[in-house]
Every structure is written in structure tokens, then in C-alpha cells.
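User: Second chain of the day. Same drill as before.
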Amino acid sequence: MSTRSDVHPRVARRPALPRVPVAPIAEACDVFHIDPAKVARLREALIGQASVDALAETFRALGDPTRVRVLDALSHGELCVCDLAALLGSSQSATSHQLRLLRTLRLVRTRRAGRMVFYALDDRHIVTLFRQGLRHVVESEARPGRRTA
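Assistant: Same format as last time:
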């Protein structure tokens, strides 16, 4: 064991990383100036709080990988819970739970045929939203020099 007081026996020192100069990012103005006419005009054009909350809830639902997989499957056509669970490799209970949440948010709808219940995307807007989001992801992945987490 070392007798030096500045060295801990269990902690290895990492080599220092080279400093890389980073160009400043313009995230804020250099001067503070408000255009009252523009702010007033835009304040009237912004969506209301109820719509903001509903839209945020929709995007929150899309933030779960399992629900994205459900929407992906349903974008190809309606499915019953049994088929959807088999396709996703999850239990019927877990799949039903996700479908219930998506139905509450009006992202999916049901159709009963005898004792069977079929699920489908609620309307074309959901398909469009899903496909545009997917297009954004694919284009971002293909972009050279993209940053990853």
C-alpha cells in the first residue's frame, strides 16, 4: 500500500480528455427587445390551454415504445387483442391495458363483431401523425453528422 497521502489505493486516475474548442451556439439574442405588436398578434393565434393539454397527452402516449408498436401494427389494419398480443409478443392483459389508454385518448377505436372486439386507428389523422413522426425519425437517422444520445 502506498504511504503517499495524495493517492487513494482503490481509485485509479483517468487520463485527462483533450479540450476541444466548441463554437458558441446562438440560443439567445445579444440584446433584449420585445416587439409588442408581434407578441400580441401571436398571443391571439396560439392554441388554447385545453388543446395544449390534449395535444401534450397525445404526444405523451406516443412516448411509450409499446404504444408506438401498437399504433404501428394498427396502421396496417384492424386487429383483435389476441392477434395484436401475439404480434407484439406480450400478454393479452398488457395489450388490453395499452389499448384502453389509447382508446381513452381517442387514438384507437373499437368494433364489435359477435364476441370479438377489433381495434383500429381512430381516424386518418392518427395514421398521418404516426407516419410523419416515423418519416422524421428515418430522415434524421439518414442525415450525415447527426447527433445521437
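The first helix runs from residue 36 to 45.

User: Great, on to the next one.
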